[in-house]
Amino acid sequence: MNQTPFDNDVAPAWCPGCGNFMILTALKKALSGLDLKPSQVLICSGIGQAAKLPHYMKCNTFNGLHGRSIPVASGARLVNPELVVMAEGGDGDIYGEGGNHFMHAIRKNINITLLAHNNQVYGLTKGQASPTSEPGFTTKVQTEGVKISMLDPLTTALSLNAGFVARSFSGDIEHLAGVIQQAIGYRGFSLVDILMPCVSFNKLNTFKWYKSRVYKLEDINWDTSNKPAAYEKAEEWGEKIPIGIFYKQARPAYEDLVSVLKGKPLIDREYSPQKVGELFEEFN
Amino acid sequence: MNQTPFDNDVAPAWCPGCGNFMILTALKKALSGLDLKPSQVLICSGIGQAAKLPHYMKCNTFNGLHGRSIPVASGARLVNPELVVMAEGGDGDIYGEGGNHFMHAIRKNINITLLAHNNQVYGLTKGQASPTSEPGFTTKVQTEGVKISMLDPLTTALSLNAGFVARSFSGDIEHLAGVIQQAIGYRGFSLVDILMPCVSFNKLNTFKWYKSRVYKLEDINWDTSNKPAAYEKAEEWGEKIPIGIFYKQARPAYEDLVSVLKGKPLIDREYSPQKVGELFEEFN
Amino acid sequence: MLDFNIKIGGQAGQGMQTIGYILSKIFSRGGYHIFSNQDYQSRIRGGHNFFQIRVAANPVFAATDKVDLLIALDELSIAEHQAELKDSGGIIYDADKSAPPVALSGRFNIPLEKLAVEAGGKKVFVNSVASGAALGLLGYDFKPLEKLLYASFSKKKPETLTANIKAAKAGYQYAEANYASRFVHKLKPQVTTPRLMINGNEAIALGALAAGCNFFAAYPMTPATSIMVYLAGKQQDFNIIVEQAEDELAALNMVLGASYAGARAMTATSGGGFALMTEALSLAGITETPAVIALVQRPGPATGLPTRTEQGDLLFALHAGHGEFQRIIFTPGSAEEAFYLTHKAFNLADKYQIPVLILSDQHLADSYRNIEPFDLSALKIDKYFAKEAPEVAREYQRHKITASGISPRLIPGKSRQLVVTDSDEHTEDGHLTEDLDMRVNMVDKRERKYQGIMAELEPPVLSGAAEADLLLIGWGSTCGVISEVVQRLNAQGRRVSQLHFPQVWPFPKAAVTGIFKAVKRKVLIENNRTGQLAQLLRAETGLSVDDKILKYDGRPFTAAYILERL
Amino acid sequence: MLDFNIKIGGQAGQGMQTIGYILSKIFSRGGYHIFSNQDYQSRIRGGHNFFQIRVAANPVFAATDKVDLLIALDELSIAEHQAELKDSGGIIYDADKSAPPVALSGRFNIPLEKLAVEAGGKKVFVNSVASGAALGLLGYDFKPLEKLLYASFSKKKPETLTANIKAAKAGYQYAEANYASRFVHKLKPQVTTPRLMINGNEAIALGALAAGCNFFAAYPMTPATSIMVYLAGKQQDFNIIVEQAEDELAALNMVLGASYAGARAMTATSGGGFALMTEALSLAGITETPAVIALVQRPGPATGLPTRTEQGDLLFALHAGHGEFQRIIFTPGSAEEAFYLTHKAFNLADKYQIPVLILSDQHLADSYRNIEPFDLSALKIDKYFAKEAPEVAREYQRHKITASGISPRLIPGKSRQLVVTDSDEHTEDGHLTEDLDMRVNMVDKRERKYQGIMAELEPPVLSGAAEADLLLIGWGSTCGVISEVVQRLNAQGRRVSQLHFPQVWPFPKAAVTGIFKAVKRKVLIENNRTGQLAQLLRAETGLSVDDKILKYDGRPFTAAYILERL
Ligand SMILES: Cc1ncc(C[n+]2csc(CCOP(=O)(O)OP(=O)(O)O)c2C)c(N)n1
Ligand SMILES: Cc1ncc(C[n+]2csc(CCOP(=O)(O)OP(=O)(O)O)c2C)c(N)n1
Ligand code: SF4
Ligand code: SF4
Ligand SMILES: [Mg+2]
Ligand SMILES: [Mg+2]
Prior knowledge:
Chain A is built from nine helices and eight strands. By secondary structure, chain A is α/β, with parallel strands linked by helices.
């Protein structure tokens, strides 16, 4: 493996064969490919196997609560816009516990990148169904198999006016790194849903399962500006599963719309208690 | 006004001219038109102006927390399926604070009906923007106008594989009552987004504003089974705003899929502490 | 000594708040001391609300029961409040809308609506007519009202402004001509220096601005919302971003993200929203991320009485969040304390890298007093970021174990150092660990912060003789009313003192123990059902109070209420 | 008296849990008393975990420090645990994988992996080999193992079963042939009556089933998840629906909806999830909706040490939720208490229409003991629904004000009556009100429930002489280890007693005050940093303890740990 400035020497606590290793590799590759330094990057993660990722690389890290990576990333980005800010976690983390933030962050379009490690299962808590588990998927809790419609995060993101909607696969590091780079390059909220095997708890959607299904949108010259087509493509899930950038639109990022956020980062501005005196007149 | 068995004599605490009055009338009309008795109906509401509704009619009522009407309704319905169960509240309540339940309840498809009183504003807390407020809408908090993309609940519901997706308007009681009746008749989760004016805080989307824009899907012979068309229709918002049933599909309700829920309501079954003795062998 | 009490009653939407606010300002500018508070329902129109203004020669800190002038904008207000009138009191009412009040000399029928419609064609000007009428009756100058109406309506259409002034004048003249001679009470403007007429929430907002708060995220919730609203209006002038979050979970997590990234960040909410924040509060604890949280209480449980007041969340605030971690809880008793303690909250949050709570309530939030302008001269914005100094230049450790418990804090992206933190127990460099010795060291390190914090406690404020016969104890918004009770009792020759807690956590044990020894009878006064401070007091010191005066009907104490029960 | 301690160490994914569980069962069925507990990391593969089994002639209630037999599945386990071995102890290890342990007589190199691969071709059978080896070394019968493997693998492929048995046999024979003579410890199966080998979470799940729980909603969270998993497996047999919610907010709100609609409903979570439930807890309070909540604690704050144990949430559980409302908190100290108190929790939740919390922790949750089967004969499912009797037939009032504080509860839809409840303060018929007298009446009505609840408190359990020289006090999962300490000290001739709290709220004031008078020194033992029960004790009674022994490294107490500090 090529060395990158993002490498550290912590041994990941993931199972051998876990898709997270490849995602880690791809992410480090993407970041170093963009000539970023570790200190320029902030990863806010939740809780889960996926969410341990920032511990296994060099970067600024806020490893917060299950489901809450997005608001942390949003808060950080608004005040400290010189950072490349990412939110990161598993499918349960981001689409389950954190679903409300997922929904509204897309609408808000702050310039952060969301990496959702989608193994279609709750890994860390030992194999319950996640929102992206397939109907019929049997677990110790879903004893008769999942009876709920599978969440397709891409379609839902599209419905929320997302500006950048992509999917990739842990098994294709080049592709994934490329998609991540484009996501970071997009000014606004970018979603990268990453298919990955969980060797311990998902015996249905295995590496082989994904590998034999995924194909690249680039290879079919996909037009990333066609929303109705994107909807249709996003619903393609079965014998063939498309990966790549489904949809991209220029949409002003939140920070480009709000006056006070224009100019110097908030954290670099000057503040003085005495300025409050200017307000006294209002109260007389 | 016709009297219905659902009338009570509590004076609503709404502002004169508020769209909620019409929704209340339509709902009572819909229920009595279905020959339901108040004791057969349970309305679970959240907190907000809209969510006060069940106090102004006769029915079983669980007026719970802001944002949490859907889980309460879901829990009630699963164990007591002889009730017609509705969740009800405002746009802030259901799509904002309660967004995660909205998302996942649609996927789960328990047989409840959701009435979302969509005045595009937070009424009870005095006029902040809600997820459905239009970009540019100015409030005391959104001092420069809303800078966030407007949530379209119908599109998002479609993306989540909703079985019944409708919109109506408080200004057309007949239409609204009819849509509510169909929503109740649908076995599964049904969404009725109800446009309504807030005379106190929404000076943009007024009664007149809505009235001059809404037109009925029935009038254009809308095919409710065409999903791509439904997506497109749901995005129509401007000079013309469609109301009616956008999309309907037969999808088994959750309770028809889960074995233990088939048969007698859970609350009517027999339980005995001694039956636990049968499990002792497992533990030897 | 002048102590004049005006009550304005009517329905939501009739503009009591406007009249109340305007009259309060007039008297404030006129050199009087005022205390104004309001009682409103959880609705936008209709129902019954009221606004009271106490106008006095000396500083006043609480509302009082008996009314000198009732302005009844509807019939219900007469029924509700007539009994509160003093013998010398009077009622302004509109006989076209309400049956006249019974058996009372001071009945001042003023055709409010008629005058409003004549002046400008709109019923909503009724509040201007009523304001004018009140001043006319009191023989007060009309000019201050005119000036205020100018200021209030200057951004509206000129017709609106003119009509309002006309309406006010009509009310003034009508009252002056017909009734002024029959009303014994008179007020005159005095020469005065400018004061601030301010409520508790505004004071918190100003305190935040004075502390350099530049990130505020919240979800609207009565009675906290007005903090957000005030700050939202200052975004550009004060370089602060005000974010309305999708829910309270997001609000506090955004605050933590911003704070981690270098901002001074705050949220404000009430009980239900705070309940949703408790998980993130615990996150602030273990990640050692500064945060200021204004918890403006209202009566619970759940939705309870959403527009009323209670002090029901003290122990919840103290123990909120799973696991054990450090916090400070300030409980301001006045706008002044709200301002200075909010300012201090930011400095301490930064210094100790902990969450600091401002525990206020609806009563303090919505009550106005006119106070001396805050003294800004000594205020500083103390940031405690580490320089990337030699000792941290090599391998920066966000959670370095130190004797003070305080680890060096850096802003991510501002140096080549990496700022790593974690909700799991972690090593000094912020990476998750399951090393059990490290766990113990980290827990101890964090707990050591209390040593520093204890050294800069806000001590409980003892007013009056140390060797009193009776000590009245309270925290937060009861401060004003208790001070009035103490004054009154001492004026009767009793030996009564007050002990007010502006900070309940860490609990100022030593101070209290000393104070308790010297006094005879100790009575706790709390706006709740279970006497939460008494529980805390006993848990921390073993000391008990002799009696409790509790109130949990959603309304604040009055001096009379307490005096009756002593 | 036999007291033999086996420890199995290795990586996550190596199957320690399986070996541990199987060996425990064998000795349990063999007539011994066992106590098994485990220590695992928050990962699925790798790292270091261990499982300990204490096998004894008399009942044992806690783990012990010193090890008789260490089964080291990897090299790290030797390094980690060798020091804990007794002189007579031994280590089973695999010299092909690990360097041999140093300087120890009982070194039993067994080619675990080689035998596994020979038996069935797969490394994963290592755990069967090791189980066999342990039995061989101990001279125990092989049959019980064979029988258990049959039962465990009967649903798998026949090859898998055969291979496992072959592997186990190989391990057995290898150990017997090579080392049995060198290992002094021997165990033999005894004749016995069936017992239950059960852990705390299983006991809670059985208690819920025994109480007729028919609705369970939760979001997975270690160490509570296994309650959900157990119940999920019983859905059809026991007519219970187990719902995995999208988050904890949904989980408790679903529970309240189901309960309101007539179900017996429960949730289970750990600290972070519970934090998210606090708003809904408050909702249960004001709507008077029964709910049972198992809060299985782990060390915080925030994510903390997610797979370890702590008792850090006592005061949080007690004060969680905004506003003041009623609750019961049970703190079971054993599987037996977990079972009976969970059963009782449902009956009391229904009777008093309040939330009842079962405060457990990872240690109790995951530790096995083999106990007498629960006595089911006296258990009842007491539902307290009102009949639609004459007095309620006219105008049913869900929140009728009564002397007991308990209002008649009806199931919506089961009669013509309407069941109306509200998170706002409400009238007797459940509609929201802003009437302040009604508010006070409702608060008082709800608070009156405590009168009834106090009359059926679980008293603190005093074991030993009332006039002891030393009283060791604890709550929840420390019960077992404290009882062992007491036994040991009394065996040395000291006069020591134990005071265990199976219920901490309402606090059994009267009982404690009485007990405290009679004893000399009082020492509190808690698995946390701040001594939370001591705070509660003092707040409620003014009493203090003389000393505290606290532990907050994520691991449970051992008798030795406590003894050293006494
Ligand atoms: C509030 C809260 N609820 C539950 C948990 C327990 N929990 C930890 S990780 C996890 C789910 C993990 O699934 P996912 O997010 O898909 O990540 P993965 O492990 O599959 O990568 C859960 C439920 C938690 N830490 N916090
Ligand atoms: C947890 C929580 N946060 C905030 C509030 C305050 N609150 C009450 S109603 C409301 C919003 C009302 O807007 P909407 O749901 O659209 O209802 P409307 O009043 O417009 O009908 C809010 C924020 C609350 N009650 N609970
Ligand atoms: S459990 Fe699954 S997701 Fe977690 S580390 Fe193992 S393989 Fe990866
Ligand atoms: S504020 Fe708006 S939504 Fe609320 S009652 Fe008034 S008009 Fe209706
Ligand atoms: Mg996952
Ligand atoms: Mg609304």
